Amino acid sequence: MHLAAAPERHDFELTRGDEDHVVRLTWASDPEGFRAGPHFAPFTAGLADFAAYAGEPRRHERVDIGRPTPTLYEWAGGAEAFQKLFHAFYLRVPEDELLAPLFAGMDPEHAHHVADWLGEVFGGPRAYSTTRGGHRGMVGKHVGKGITEQQRKRWVALLLDTADDVGPPDDPEFRSAFVGYLEWGTRMAVVFSSPGTQPNPAEPMPTWDWGNVRPWQG
């Protein structure tokens, strides 16, 4: 087919209405190159039988409606960025007098697991849900820990200091969403860890975006 062979062509489709047919062409380059090339004459000759029924060709310019908004996970740099952040962070935790007791005997893979958690919350792959039990698994890690408000604040502050040193991005929009989740998530961790608290383990994974989250329900 001469149209398919033309290098200037990007795509085409034929649609049928109640009373007519419409051929839509999109071009990879200037269509005038097609008109001047070897495929134009045989292409138009093949349309001769339809010429009496065809309307005047109309040209439309492509309108750029913008790219989809990236997820926080994509904007941060994906799995590599989250792994880098939390591995650097948890190297600092044993040296902190408030946090060291809370993380004594920490699983060697703890940084990796937390990176998977935050990546999923921020719109990345469901790595934590598929390997660590999702929300139920995270709740189970906190129940009975008795996390104090001082420890919560220190965890957030140390993570933000680490983020300033190794990333992720520091633009105001991302950091606002990032800090928003850290504040929300750590306060929920304090609730989960409080003596006598019985959180709902069936609560789904939280999802976080550029300023919109469904409140957690106990």
Can you lay out the helices and strands and say which pair or pack?
Layout: H1 2-5, E1 9-16, E2 21-27, H2 32-36, H3 40-46, H4 72-76, H5 78-92, H6 110-121, H7 127-132, H8 134-142, H9 149-166, H10 172-193
Antiparallel strand pairs: 1-2
Describe the protein's architecture and organization.
This protein has 218 residues and is mainly alpha-helical. It has helices spanning 2-5, 32-36, 40-46, 72-76, 78-92, 110-121, 127-132, 134-142, 149-166, 172-193, and strands at residues 9-16, 21-27. Residues 213-218 have low confidence and may be disordered. β1 and β2 form a beta hairpin. The longest helix is centred in the last third of the chain and has 22 residues, at 172-193. The protein is elongated, with a radius of gyration of 28 Å. It folds into two domains: 2-50, no CATH class; 72-193, Globins (Globin-like). 18% of the residues are buried. α5 crosses α6 (110-121), α5 packs across α9 and α9 (149-166) packs antiparallel against α10. A two-stranded antiparallel ribbon has the order 1-2.
